TrEMBL record:
<dbReference type="GO" id="GO:0004386">
    <property type="term" value="F:helicase activity"/>
</dbReference>
<dbReference type="InterPro" id="IPR014001">
    <property type="entry name" value="Helicase_ATP-bd"/>
</dbReference>
<keyword id="KW-0238">DNA-binding</keyword>
<keyword id="KW-0227">DNA damage</keyword>
<keyword id="KW-0234">DNA repair</keyword>
<dbReference type="InterPro" id="IPR047112">
    <property type="entry name" value="RecG/Mfd"/>
</dbReference>
<dbReference type="GO" id="GO:0006281">
    <property type="term" value="P:DNA repair"/>
</dbReference>
<dbReference type="GO" id="GO:0003677">
    <property type="term" value="F:DNA binding"/>
</dbReference>
<protein>
    <submittedName>
        <fullName>DEAD/DEAH box helicase</fullName>
    </submittedName>
</protein>
<dbReference type="InterPro" id="IPR027417">
    <property type="entry name" value="P-loop_NTPase"/>
</dbReference>
<keyword id="KW-0547">Nucleotide-binding</keyword>
<dbReference type="Pfam" id="PF00270">
    <property type="entry name" value="DEAD"/>
</dbReference>
<dbReference type="InterPro" id="IPR011545">
    <property type="entry name" value="DEAD/DEAH_box_helicase_dom"/>
</dbReference>
<keyword id="KW-0347">Helicase</keyword>
<feature type="domain" description="Helicase ATP-binding">
    <location>
        <begin position="1"/>
        <end position="97"/>
    </location>
</feature>
<keyword id="KW-0067">ATP-binding</keyword>
<keyword id="KW-0378">Hydrolase</keyword>
């Protein structure tokens, strides 16, 4: 079992990449570092990636191409609309961890209608002032000429 993240550097990284290429690593855990050109899978049985929501379509394809027979487990605490759709339509199985890490408080997830936009922004502002976090999930990253009425992250960010 090996861990490859962006913080693995120098001699340790070179050794890990060598072990990956010669097939001595059975299970690889990592983040975006896994899709770098110098990362070559050879007989890796399982790859576990964290922060799946940061992997776009192209990045997931690159990861798949690195190991044709490799099982991949994508993990995320932030399911994005595309991932939800893929899991609903059967292209991805879902495994759920239903217990919180020790000492972790539950996260409150809310769904709001467009008519509640100003109220939601005010509530988010209050939470941020308290040092808390707030997330807005949009179906698109950028605008699309085919989906003009669908909210995208870039436009939302610019409007805030």
């Amino acid at each position: 079992v090996a861990l490859l993240t962006g913080s693995v550097k120098g001699k340790k990284r070179r050794l890990l990449l060598e072990q990956l290429e010669n097939g001595t690593i059975d299970c690889l855990i990592g983040t975006h570092a896994l899709i770098q050109d110098d990362v070559v899978f050879n007989n890796v049985g399982l790859v576990i990636t964290d922060e799946q929501h940061r992997f776009g379509v192209n990045q997931r394809q690159i990861l798949r191409e690195k190991g044709a027979m490799t099982n991949v487990l994508f993990m995320t605490a932030t399911p994005i609309p595309r991932t939800l759709a893929i899991s609903v339509f059967g292209e991805m199985d879902v495994s759920s961890i239903k217990q919180l890490p020790k000492g972790r408080k539950p996260i409150k997830t809310s769904w709001a209608k467009h008519e509640q936009y100003d109220q939601v922004l005010a509530q988010m502002s209050n939470e941020l002032k308290k040092g808390r976090q707030a997330y807005v999930i949009c179906p698109l990253i950028e605008s699309s000429e085919h989906l003009e009425d669908v909210q995208n992250v870039v436009a939302l960010y610019e409007s805030l």
